[in-house]
Amino acid sequence: MTDLSRQTVRHRRVSAELKRMREASGKNAYEVADAMRWNRTKVHRLERGEWKRLKEADVRRLADFYGVADRRRVDALVAMARQASTRGWWARYSDVLGPGSYTSLEAGASELRFYSGMLVPGLLQTSSYAEAIFRGADITDDAEITRRLEARRARQEILGRSDSPSIHAIIDQAALNKVIGRPSAMAEQLLHLVEVGKRGKAKVQVLPDTAGSHPALTGQFAILSFPSEDEEPVVFIDSAHNGLFLEEPDEIASYTLIFDRLRELVLSAEDSYELIASLVNRLVE
């Protein structure tokens, strides 16, 4: 069995994509194994990531059997499988495979720690706030915006799961001061943060302007931890067009220290709610 602690983000994504392709085809694992003339456990092992090297021929045979006609998608999966042992990578295949690398990891995490400097974390965004962000990024097609909002809402379903991850969001006051969309939409977003916190779905704390200089001034990041002790945490650094996964132990330790330092600077949950309420009052006056 493959050591889960050695599975990189690429490795996990390849396995998840193989499972997604099979499920989309409507075939079960035993049908696939019989068609490929494999041991009946092999398909499950591939989809759980219990492999060291994945043959290009196997990936292409599976894609053909699943009826995947998009050659660019298959080529991207093959390229990712070749580099599956490499830690730390830019999510450059998202245009072909979709932005599932981060979201699939987020859905399987047991703990999520966010620092957001200029925006509310996506998992905690209201639809109106998210739509204003999309339109601000020059996305004008209504159908595309609807699709993105549906994807965002689907992602947020983990907040209502019985096994939802522990979520701790540290949000810089600068993100809350910035009015995204109409003032009424921003007020709705701020009230949503308070509601999420008070209902215990996430721990929401504000890093106030009075905190001054701090170690996360250069940007936002997320630390994802997983249920198994064998699975190492991952740091995700978001950017306008790509995302960077960090997986080396020293990188994880560095960002964990940064987050711990931020925890020393934030307002308490109750004081955070009071500050947010004051910002809401300014918007509705």
Automatic annotation (TrEMBL):
Classification via Gene3D superfamilies: lambda repressor-like DNA-binding domains
Domain HTH cro/C1-type: residue ranges: 17-73
Higher taxonomy: Bacteria, Bacillati, Actinomycetota, Actinomycetes, Streptosporangiales
Molecular-function GO terms, alphabetical: DNA binding
Entry coiled-coil feature ranges: none
Annotated source species: Nocardiopsis gilva YIM 90087
Protein name as it appears in the record: XRE family transcriptional regulator
